[in-house]
Amino acid sequence: WSENIQAVLPVVATPLLFVYGELLPKYLYFHAPYRLSTLGAPLLLLFAALFLPLSLLVMALEVLWQRVAPREGVQEKLSLERQALQRVLMESQEAGILLPIQRELAQNIFTFGVRAVRHFANPIRALPWVTEPADRETILAQARRFNETFVGVLSKDKRRLVGAYLVADTVVLPPGQTPPLRPVPNIPANENALTALAKLQSQQAPVAQVVDAQGNPIGAVTLQRLTSLLVRMA
Questions:
Q1: CA 197/CA 120 separation, integer angstroms
Q2: Sheet of 207-211, strands arranged across
Q3: For the chain, how big is the Rg over CA atoms in Å?
Q4: Which residues contact 226 (CB under 8 A, 6 or more apart)?
Q5: 125 in the same domain as 100
Q6: Domains in the chain: how many in total?
Q7: CA-based, 20 to 30 A from 29: which of 55, 67, 75, 190?
Q8: Alpha-carbon distance 189 to 191, whole Å?
Q9: 217 and 160 assigned to the same domain
Q10: CATH number of the CATH domain containing 167
């Protein structure tokens, strides 16, 4: 009898655990997330308080392990974490929580948005550029040559961006006039791409200058470049 029970019990328990332990909670929380979260908040807080000592102990052991153990297998760990994240996003899409475009956007954010902006920078003189003073015709010619919506303005030594002209500001001017100079923010090379994108959008700047720890320019990154990294697969 014991052998029969051991053989039958997993067959009976597996669908019950899958339906009532996984599918049903997901279904209920998907259709009434705020109500169930409010009702379950006291219980969650209770468990958080009960398991807090154990959580702190695990965190302390993790910190100790990172200090004494060799840093081998870091890339393998990151790869496993990315695979786990992709699996969660795929399951969310299959469950109807995320749309396909939302899943692709989330994947791109975690893939590219956390990387340092220096990885996406180009040499400053690889962008369309002029020096001051520049008239309307010169600015538009440079923009057409590089197929860009802006033209950078270089300093006298041609090593630093001091501003940028927008094509939209230039085309409305009469011939011979110069458009207003837009500021170009400086972004540290180690800052992540998502933060750099937020700065460019908040300042309405088409391009940013990437600088090292001493403030020396090492390249430039455009708003279009950072945006395309996040939405190119969406």
A1: 12
A2: 186-188, 207-211, 217-222
A3: 27
A4: 117, 120, 193, 196, 197, 200
A5: no
A6: 2
A7: 55
A8: 6
A9: yes
A10: 3.10.580.10
Model confidence over 51-67: pLDDT tens digits? 999 999 999 998 887 77
The least confident of 8-17, 50-59, 149-158, 203-212 is 8-17
Confidence of residue 233 (pLDDT cuts 50, 70, 90): very low
Q: Residue 196: which domain range?
A: 118-231
Closest by CA position to 164, among listed 142, 175, 177, 180: 180
DSSP 3-state of 154: strand
Same-domain check for residues 42 and 135: no
In this structure, the answer to whether residues 17 and 96 fall within a common structural domain is: yes
Asked if residue 103 and residue 138 are part of one domain, the reply reads no
Name the H helices within the chain. 2-18, 24-31, 33-50, 52-68, 74-94, 100-108, 136-146, 167-170, 193-203, 223-231
Domain boundary residue among 72, 99, 116? 116
- pLDDT (tens digit, 9 = 90+) per residue, 68-83? 765 555 555 656 666 7
Whether 130 and 139 have beta carbons less than 8 Å apart is answered as yes
Give the three-state DSSP class for 175: coil
Same domain, 62 and 32: yes
Helix (H, G, I), strand (E, B), or coil: what is residue 192? strand
Integer Cα distance of 218 and 122 in angstroms = 9
Name residue 43's amino acid: L
Per the DSSP assignment, residues forming a β-bridge with 151 are: 165
**Residue 101 sits in the same domain as residue 155:** no
Q: Cα–Cα distance between 113 and 195 in angstroms, integer?
A: 8
